[in-house]
Design a protein that fits this description.
- The complex is a heterodimer.
- By secondary structure, chain A is an all-alpha fold.
- Chain A has one domain.
- In chain A, 73% of the residues lie in helices and 1% in strands.
- Chain A has a two-stranded antiparallel ribbon with strand order 1-2.
- Chain B is of the alpha/beta class.
- Chain B has two domains: 217 residues, Response regulator (Rossmann fold); 170 residues, Rossmann fold, CATH 3.40.50.2300.
- Chain B is 44% helix and 16% strand.
- The N terminus of chain B is likely disordered.
- Classes of the chains: A mainly alpha, B alpha/beta.
- The interface between A and B is large, with 37 and 43 residues.
Chain lengths: 335, 403
């Protein structure tokens, strides 16, 4: 799949990708712990944004409830670790299973009963919200008082149990982001990806052409939810506390999708670029507005900037940068 | 000058130097850089900004107490766990030698991990999740009661009030918001109540949506239950709605006993005027008899007219007091020395209820207790514990239609 990406990219794009990858690989040795913590957040949103993008950007199914899959992955792996000592390297499979089952349930209801567009989006929100309410009442999962993972200030890194330094978590989320990128790139160029794009562009036409809509939409939901669930596992072990009040909320879902929207929905680099723009933008604005002593002024400017990006680059930043930097190969490939 | 005189002078000089050393050291290192991390924007903005008032009034008061200067580095969590963590990293990077925060348990946990990894002390102002000080952290300290302590104190003080007034409700209707906070509190109340032998029985439980615009049906049900008192866990808006509905439906229970926010807040008092009088709230509070509390009340009145001193201000101020006290005793801004000094904190001249500020081996002040506060004449008046009370409880609550 990597060979295919290389084949379809221009030399300039490959050079840029190599530089960015190299910079990310050595970043922990060059930056201080604050910048590292920001990079970790960037990569987390790049990863879950990529997973969400697969569903809307590739297959045309709008989800506003992806916080559900993050939360299910997080709660499943954390509960297995806390209650039974199951390391996350094994718990991740249960986490994926939980997220995929939830995704398939939503998908089945939505696609079987032809719930489309914003109504499908509402269905995803509803599932996230009521699952949050259920978890709110399960004392085994900490209920509304929260689920806390035991924390040790250990000096060594334990990758199997995801216990260790921020640098370890950085490399884990970097690897996940790379994996999601490669997987999505391969899927987008596969027969499956072509079917998804056909569904995205014109569902009726795709159906008339013999594309089995239900099956391929279900596959998109399953892969997207499973990938997002993996993100939840990482989240649980990095932050070490989970509260239903914040985990399942629509605001979490919006944060997941915002990077992709700003970066470019349906593109491979969009979610990554969006995350690299939005999170640092927030930090820069925090620093710039520090002296104003006006609470929330940063959020105001941040919202203003995001609105400006969406207004002036409605297709997202990546297609524009792609053209400006001349990254297109002689024979046009995938963005 | 002979040799003996020289030695004596040297010894005297040495002794003097020893006495003034901490002050000189502090002067040499300058003010302690304290990173104060609060949710000053986002969904918890109101509370974070209220906590900030405790920071705003602190400077002159700490100075008058003989404490060294603090340089405040402010951080906003935006009410998000992710931002809380990166803000802690940022402030430490900017030189913060001690952190304070962050009102919310999730955000505080994220900050605690950074504090522990960096070896920088975190003094928690407000956060009630018991797990925070059960992780074996060496650099995390909390001068705020845990959720279990808050509820246990509430039942103890209810019993004390019943004994004091020589009367007790035989039945209560329990109304609570059905959000995360309300549900958690309802669960805790249900689990703890049997252990405290309260004299009443809960004859009906009525959960409701905190965003409801009309609670007439709920109050009708509560009134029809025949309960003598109302036990509730509310937020601000619904507390106002419930009161208005009780007035409208001419139902004045013997007591309104709140185990959460809403009923004692400034906005409740201002909105309802004379109808705000009567409800009892069981909450972490300040001891009005302590000298520092009186200073804080005066400082709030001067800096923020119309804003009454409350839990958010007091516990945020006390976190700064812990920091300044540790800096003074440690004589150094070294985070490890500060942590060691905080461990041996013993501040009796504080503001919150209880014998003072001191931390157990886990970093928890397990001596801090709740107060029972009753609204009287548009003010919050402490009626329990008796040692801190400035008035006796008004019992039963005056009827709404006779005010």
């Amino acid at each position: 799949m990597i060979a295919r990406v290389i084949e379809s990219a221009s030399p300039r794009a490959l050079a840029l990708l190599a530089v960015v990858t190299a910079a990310l690989l050595i970043a922990p040795y060059l930056v201080d712990s604050y910048v590292l913590s920001v990079l970790i957040i960037v990569l987390y949103f790049a990863y879950v944004g990529q997973a969400w993008n697969l569903m809307l950007g590739f297959a045309g199914q709008l989800s506003l409830g992806h916080a559900l899959f993050v939360s299910l992955g997080a709660y499943t792996s954390a509960a297995l670790f806390i209650k039974f000592g199951v390391p996350p390297v094994i718990g991740i499979f249960a986490a994926i299973a939980m997220a995929v089952v939830a995704g398939c349930l939503i998908g089945y209801l939505g696609f079987r009963f032809s719930i489309r567009g914003v109504y499908f989006a509402l269905l995803t929100i509803a599932f996230a919200e009521f699952t949050g309410i259920i978890v709110d009442h399960i004392s085994w999962l900490g209920a509304s008082s929260g689920l806390f993972l035991p924390v040790k200030n250990q000096q060594s890194n334990d990758l199997l149990n995801l216990r260790g330094s921020p640098t370890m978590f950085y490399y884990v989320i970097l690897a996940l982001t790379g994996f999601a990128f490669a997987l999505c790139s391969w899927l987008l160029n596969s027969k499956l990806g072509l079917y998804w794009q056909a569904i995205r562009e014109d569902q009726e036409a795709a159906e008339a052409s013999g594309v089995p809509l239900f099956r391929y939409k279900m596959i998109a939901v399953a892969i997207s939810s499973g990938l997002t669930g993996i993100g939840g596992v990482w989240y649980a072990f990095y932050y070490n506390n989970l509260f239903p009040e914040t985990m399942f909320k629509t605001s979490q879902s919006v944060e997941i999708i915002l990077g992709s929207v700003v970066g470019g929905v349906g593109t491979l680099f969009g979610p990554i670029l969006g995350a690299f723009v939005l999170t640092p933008l927030g930090e820069i604005l925090t620093a710039a507005t520090d002296g104003m002593h006006l609470d929330g002024v940063k959020s105001f400017f941040w919202g203003f900037c995001v609105a400006a990006i969406v207004l002036f680059r409605p297709q997202g930043l990546w297609p524009w940068i792609y053209d400006v930097l001349g990254l297109a190969p002689k024979k046009e490939g995938k963005r | 000058m002979d040799r003996r005189h020289l030695l004596a002078s040297g010894a005297a000089l040495g002794a003097t130097s020893t006495l003034v050393l901490p002050t000189r050291l502090l002067a040499a290192t300058g003010p302690l850089k304290v990173g104060v991390i609060l949710p000053r924007s986002g969904v918890q903005a109101g509370i974070g900004q209220d906590c900030q008032r405790g920071v705003d009034i602190a400077g002159p008061i700490l100075k008058a107490m003989g404490m060294p200067d603090l340089q405040i580095l402010s951080g906003d969590t935006e009410s998000k766990v992710e931002t809380a963590r990166s803000t802690a990293e940022k402030l430490i990077g900017e030189g913060a030698q001690l952190l304070i925060g962050a009102f919310d348990s999730g955000q505080t946990t994220a900050i605690a991990q950074v504090a522990e990894q960096k070896g920088v002390p975190l003094v928690i102002n407000i956060a009630a999740a018991p797990q925070i000080t059960e992780q074996g952290y060496k650099f995390v300290f909390r001068n705020f009661p845990t959720a279990g302590t808050i509820l246990a104190n509430a039942f103890e003080q209810q019993n004390a009030i019943f004994k004091q007034v020589g009367d007790a409700p035989k039945s209560v209707v329990f109304m609570h918001v059905n959000d995360t906070f309300g549900t958690a509190m309802a669960g805790g109340i249900g689990a703890l109540m049997p252990k405290f032998n309260v004299p009443y029985k809960v004859i009906e439980t009525i959960p409701y949506d905190p965003r409801a615009r009309d609670l007439s049906v709920e109050i009708s049900k509560a009134k029809a239950s025949g309960a003598e008192a109302l036990l509730c866990v509310s937020r601000l808006n619904d507390a106002i709605l419930l009161t208005r509905e009780m007035i409208k439906q001419r139902w004045t229970p013997k007591a309104v006993m709140s185990m959460g926010p809403g009923w004692y807040e400034d906005q409740y008092l201002k909105t309802l005027g004379k109808y705000s009088d009567g409800p009892l709230t069981f909450s972490p509070w300040y001891d009005p008899k302590k000298k520092l509390s009186q200073t804080l009340v005066a400082a709030m009145a001067k800096s923020f007219p119309g804003v009454n001193l409350n839990t958010n201000h007091v516990f945020t101020f006390e976190a700064l007091l812990v920091a300044a006290d540790a800096y003074k005793r440690a004589g150094s801004g070294d985070p490890k020395a500060l942590a060691e000094a905080i461990r041996t904190t013993n501040i009796a001249d504080n503001s919150s209820m209880g014998p003072g500020i001191m931390f157990n081996a886990k970093g928890q002040n397990d001596k801090v207790v709740d107060g029972s506060v009753q609204n009287v004449g548009g003010k919050q008046v402490v009626v329990q514990p008796e040692a801190s009370a400035t008035a006796k409880p008004i019992w039963p609550m005056p009827a709404y239609d006779k005010r």
